């Protein structure tokens, strides 16, 4: 049996509220990061700025040194950005790397309880802390750009005009974040009401309770006016259909409610 790697618990990543929902499992945390369309990256702009900065960015976990490493192993987080962005400039001037916090969250369901106090979400969230440095090696930079591009739609890099030209490479920066700590938090299940409420027939007879599954849906692709390819490529169709099915299945299964047979797919 394979071993399960976890991030060490430290003061910066230990989940205190609803600790039973916490996970430090590397695979689970990396999976949340890699399936999120947008990552929120926070950093300190400098001593003269009173507020931290948070930027929505595209990123992906991976290992240039060990490309075959899977999500359950130690990985770096590669983040894509514009060359003159403030965060890139600060990271460029930092010898040890720019301290950053990376966060991601996915909502899987709306928990409709008897009282507003007990309403909640089914969700998956993850936070990583690490040090960001600019990728300066051309081979690693190209590898990271392919990694990030294929995280949007798998196989897209090889099915587009590549490699990038010198101008595109010069205008793009890649940050490599060495992860120090990480944690995740997952809520799944059905409604959780207090005894005083679910034993109150006046309330239970008039208030609908249950879970509304929430999941990402990719719509039907719309060709651009300049598109000359008549048929939608199979790799795009496959990604859309597979992702939509998997997303729906996860959201429904996260309710932990058995559907009536006529509603089962």
UniProtKB/TrEMBL annotation:
Gene3D superfamilies reported for this sequence: Electron Transport, Fmn-binding Protein, Chain A (2.30.110.10)
Pfam families under this entry?
Pyridox_ox_2
Supply the PANTHER family for this chain: 5-NITROIMIDAZOLE ANTIBIOTICS RESISTANCE PROTEIN, NIMA-FAMILY-RELATED PROTEIN-RELATED, FLAVIN-NUCLEOTIDE-BINDING PROTEIN
Query: What is this protein identified as?
Result: Flavin-nucleotide-binding protein
């Amino acid at each position: 049996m394979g071993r399960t790697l976890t991030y060490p618990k430290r003061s910066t990543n230990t989940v205190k509220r609803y600790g039973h929902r916490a996970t430090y499992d590397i695979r689970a945390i990396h999976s949340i990061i890699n399936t999120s369309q947008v990552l929120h990256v926070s950093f300190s702009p400098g001593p003269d700025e009173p507020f931290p900065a948070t930027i929505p960015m595209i990123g992906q976990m991976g290992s240039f040194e060990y490309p075959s490493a899977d999500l359950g192993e130690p990985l770096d987080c590669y983040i894509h950005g514009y060359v003159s962005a403030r965060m890139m400039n600060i990271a460029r001037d930092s010898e040890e790397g720019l301290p950053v916090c990376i966060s991601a969250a996915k909502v899987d369901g709306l928990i409709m309880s008897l009282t507003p106090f007990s309403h909640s979400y089914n969700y998956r969230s993850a936070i990583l802390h690490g040090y960001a440095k600019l990728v300066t090696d051309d081979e690693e930079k190209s590898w990271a750009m392919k990694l990030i591009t294929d995280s949007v739609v798998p196989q897209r890099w090889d099915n587009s005009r590549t490699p990038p030209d010198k101008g595109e490479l010069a205008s793009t920066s890649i940050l490599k974040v060495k992860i120090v700590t990480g944690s995740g938090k997952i809520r799944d299940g059905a409604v959780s009401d207090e005894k005083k409420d679910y034993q109150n027939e006046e309330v239970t007879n008039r208030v609908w309770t249950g879970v509304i599954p929430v999941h990402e849906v990719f719509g039907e692709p719309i060709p651009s006016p300049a598109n000359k390819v008549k048929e939608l490529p199979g790799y795009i169709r496959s990604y859309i259909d597979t992702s939509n099915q998997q997303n729906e299945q996860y959201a429904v299964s996260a309710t932990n409610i058995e559907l009536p047979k006529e509603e089962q797919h």
